[in-house]
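TL;DR need structure tokens for one chain.
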Amino acid sequence: MVVLRKSTQEEFDRWFALSMERQAEDRAWVNGTDPKAERAQLEAMIPVLLPKGMDSPDHAFRVARDEAGNELGFVWVGVAPGAPEGTCVLFDVHVHEAHRGRGVARAMLEQMLESLKGDAIKTVVLYVRADNAPARALYTKLGFVEEETPEGAKDLQMRKTLEPDPEDERAHTFERQHVVVSGLPSTRAILDIGGGGEGVIGRIAGERVIAIDRLRQELEEAPAGPLKIVMDARELGFLDKSFQTVTAFFSLMYMKAEDHPRVFEEAFRVLAPGGRFLVWDAVIPPRTGEKRDIVVFPMTIDLPDGKVVSTGYGVRWPDGGRDAAYYRHVAEAAQFEVVSEHATERHFAMELAKR
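>> reply
TL;DR here they are.
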């Protein structure tokens, strides 16, 4: 079994250097130039292509591992500057030599191509050496078509139009939201409710964070740093008055409305007097029509250290919708006092206090 996971910084640094070396060699072969000169040109392009490194918006870097945790290879897709809307590039795919011939590359690409369907990507292009018959055959099996190329060309462009995802007819995708995260308190410990997945709070506060999530897989995918515990927010396994800060970063939207009062009550219980509950979440309008029952919010998140997280949050569309006023009502019923509230049309941030 091949599993694609987001790369860590160490993994990214290691294999990105390998990717640059491989691409420089291919460009030198195609152009009849010196690999060192091609490497220098590629390195000069990096600040434009990847201004935020592995966290650059519109780029996905994934490492493949098997069930035993062995690293199998990596894949990189992203949007090139000036590319047509809805088009991305398969920049590189690599399988470590010891794992070749086992269908790893195909499994990696199938998973990556499937994931792109939810990112408004309609077309994927790639470039391959004309003499790389095995790669060309694999890409053809995956539905890539070779573009018309002058006779004698040393490289080819191949293109694949992604088939519409059946979920697209059910999903309404709002415009991309830009969220700036700042002002996180420097308290000794922060309880982050729903801290799996992107793990935004954990990225900021690291070891000061205790990240809880009902799903083990979500915690496994979150970046390292926080203490990760599988736990239900409706029944927190902590003593009363244990924390000065509790956070919920776009996690309440995944919970049922009937569970929200209990979650807020538990957050109130584990907070010390004067403690803060910091909430960021989506403003979901009331659902209209029966066909579209999924709502998706693409996000670009600016972290205090200058890094950027590009992601998206999608849930079943609640019939009545949920906005800042909805959560304010739940919070006040749990005895919280609203200290501040900042809202845009599609998301909000709220600071709640336990007096």
